[in-house]
Amino acid sequence: MIVHNTRNGVERLRVPPDLFETHFEEIHRYIARRLSDDVADDLAADVFLVALRGGYDGVKGEVRPWLYGIATNLVARHRRTEVSRLKALARAAERHVEDREDELLDRVDAARFTGPLAGALAGLKRRDRDVVLLIALSGLTHAEVAEALGIPYGTVASRLNRARKQLRKALKEDVDG
Amino acid sequence: MDELDLISRALPEARPLSPEVVAQARARVATARAPRHRSRAWTWTWAGAAIGTAAVVGVVALVANMAEPAAPILASQAKPNQALYDLADKVEQLKEPTTGRYWSELKREGEGGKTATEDRWVPRVAADDPVLIKRSYKKSCVVHRLDLGGRWPDTGLGEFSMVELGALPSDQAALERKLRGFHKVWYDRGFKDSFEDFLPGAASLLSMPVKPAVRASVLRILAAAPHTRVHGTATDPLGRPGLLVTFAKPGAGGTIGKVAVSYRTFLNPSDGRWLAVVALADKDQRVVSYSALVSGGWVDERPLVPKGCKLKG
């Protein structure tokens, strides 16, 4: 990876060029899907402020996990907003689901499961939800999630496993009625 | 389809990103280089460092709310920008203390009818701990840890060690070459501002521990910059007279909340240092927020962390 030196010609590898242009949209989308579009408008810019002021260190890994890690940390400050949003989604979806019988997961309209999924996500521990949503919304690999959150690979796996059990349970209960 | 795929498809999609949102975010990040909310610079510096590793001390405690000051009142109208050249001539002759263990600054800030103070201690050498003591209107007291590695905490213009700050050239042409180097760093990061649009950020040097001769050169460079406008002598939020200057081009101030603002800087007429920065609403010129330097300089004593503060990070 080409990285630029921000120490004015001195020692450290730092922030890649075009960081903002390359990654702003996906970071904004990630935050918007977790919180809201309006919050994302401000918070996504905050991610890049933190990134540019904190600096990129090449030894820490790739840029995308690093940015998603910052974004996830900033989203954590809005935990109540996120949980409220998920609960609202769960309630709203319940009102609109009329027929959900005998649908197989690989054939359903995913929107039909917005309610139970949102409800289950709201019930997850924040650290488990972070892992799930980093993988689901950003497409990061397990190793990249570990980089982003600064946790061991095995911890990512265990959190994901625990979260998936809860999600499956919620989906099963929903399908079973 | 597994649960994760289902989440990706089932959660509401974000609205398409508008060019306006991108432009505002880009401007906000780019204009963050300019001297304005000193506390935010710290906040972000700390937040950024917290993602890496850490080691300083900061404290958050209580202070009473105070009324927002009235907008600055112009006392006179000076010849455009000549006042900055005059001030530079005066500053260049100053003899200032250059010894001391810590560079200590006490600032008062206000926004939304609430005030806070910030007391920061930046050590001359990396072996000493930097300390940030923040007293807000909230009854909280937190001590943070961060390793600045002997660097000046604000990185909006460039990254400086304390040694590098002390070694900045006082020759105007040499200093301008340095500034062009800082500009290139930002340009290469993807912020394609012209050097002229970048220059207002050099005003941050007026708040840093640099030699008077360096400050004088900064003042002359800023006086010649295309966006600089001297408004005259005015009263700052703490009631002190200062030279009121706008450094950034119109529209570069961004927003605070949803309010479009422009930043103006008060300079100390005695030593050319940064005295205060106010964010004025573009719509009605009311003060939306301010940050004012109460005192600052080199000191030998070490900072004391108030009792009862929790260590964080």
From TrEMBL, chain A:
- On the tree of life, the source organism's domain of life is Bacteria
InterPro entries associated with the record? RNA_pol_sigma-70-like (IPR039425), RNA_pol_sigma-70_dom (IPR014284), RNA_pol_sigma70_r2 (IPR007627), RNA_pol_sigma70_r4_t2 (IPR013249), RNA_pol_sigma_r2 (IPR013325), RNA_pol_sigma_r3/r4-like (IPR013324), WH-like_DNA-bd_sf (IPR036388)
Location of the RNA polymerase sigma factor 70 region 4 type domain: 119-167
Residue intervals of the RNA polymerase sigma-70 region domain: 19-82
The answer to whether UniProt assigns keyword Cell membrane to this entry is: no
Instruction: Identify the keywords attached in UniProt to this record, alphabetized.
Output: Sigma factor, Transcription, Transcription regulation
- Residues passing through the membrane, by range: none
**According to its UniProt record, which protein family does this protein belong to?**
Belongs to the sigma-70 factor family. ECF subfamily.
Q: What is this protein called?
A: RNA polymerase sigma factor
- The organism is Nonomuraea longicatena
TrEMBL record, chain B:
Please, which domain of life does this record's source organism belong to?
Bacteria
TM helices/strands, residue ranges = 41-64
Q: What does the UniProt keyword field contain?
A: Membrane, Transmembrane, Transmembrane helix
Could you identify this protein by its name? Uncharacterized protein
Q: What is the lineage of its organism?
A: Bacteria, Bacillati, Actinomycetota, Actinomycetes, Streptosporangiales
